[in-house]
Amino acid sequence: MSKRVLIVRLSAVGDTILSLPIACALRRHLPEIELGWVVARGASDLIVGHDCLDQVFVLPPDALRSPSVLVRFGRKLKAWKPDVVIDAQGLTKSAILGWLSGARQRIGLAKSEFEGRELSTWINNTIVTPESSHVIDRGLELLRPLGISQSSIEYRIPDFLAIRDRVRNEAQTLGWRFPGAIINVGAGWTSKVWPSDRYAAVARHLADRWGLLSCIVWGGAREKQAAEEVVALSEGSAVLAPPTTLPELAEWIRCSGLFLGSDTGPMHLACALDIPTVGLIGPMPVERVGPKGTNRIAVQRLTLKEGQRAHRKTDCGPMLSIDVAGVVAACDSLLSEIQVRNVAA
After folding, report:
1. Whether this model's pTM surpasses 0.85
2. Could you say which architecture CATH assigns to the domain 163-344?
3. E strand residue ranges, 188-336
């Protein structure tokens, strides 16, 4: 077997999390290899220190805009001498980085609506035609040329023990205690944002029926404003989280008993941490991006058809079709199942 395998998955946070099972499967099935990962700075906090990886290459912020910086970075990859590259992103930039590494075998997915895009299928030289629907399963199919045809899904998010006590002290100061709910109001696309008044209505229900205080997490000024609106409309059923880094957010989520949010990085992080999760799925197919695993419920009412998905980042119709009653029912169903299991145990 090849001695060194390099995964290229640069961003975004959610997609990077959904690619972690590739690294875990490689480590489990081929424990003798050296395993590296190329990642962009925004998602690097979840990759650096991951126990499946021997080497992490963090792409400089200007590498894709500066040929000289890109070439220097490529030399670092080539000096590591990978035998195989797994292009988990399927774009020109990720395929070029694999080519610059000097690896003889560069594995990528065949061209489709979401993968194998741009020039990636021309640059990669081992093309896999996926048979599954979900992005996690399709990522794992990239390992077929290495003799790995089936694998369980693992993430192994690093433990950030150095900040855990501080996060729990902050939670105690806010009056939020385990196992409270975490609600993430933001998303990278406008089309994945659910209205603040609807999140507030769910927070009130969680407090009234289940005694759960919700902590509203956010990132950036626009999301903070939305989070503040949820808190203001929650009638005391929600508190505002402090600013968080990605590791801090992971520790907040670890403390929770329920996560609610749309198809974005924090939702996928909650699933990776095995937290009971209700995922609100807007424009993308639920069979591709919905939360996988037990203690997960996806809520979707409408989705964009293939011919409409050119507007998937701006068309808010699918997300707005999700009503409060449907989300409340999903939360109640999940929490009731957990309660029954806890009593039985």
Report:
1. yes
2. 3-Layer(aba) Sandwich (3.40)
3. 214-217, 238-240, 258-262, 277-280, 296-299
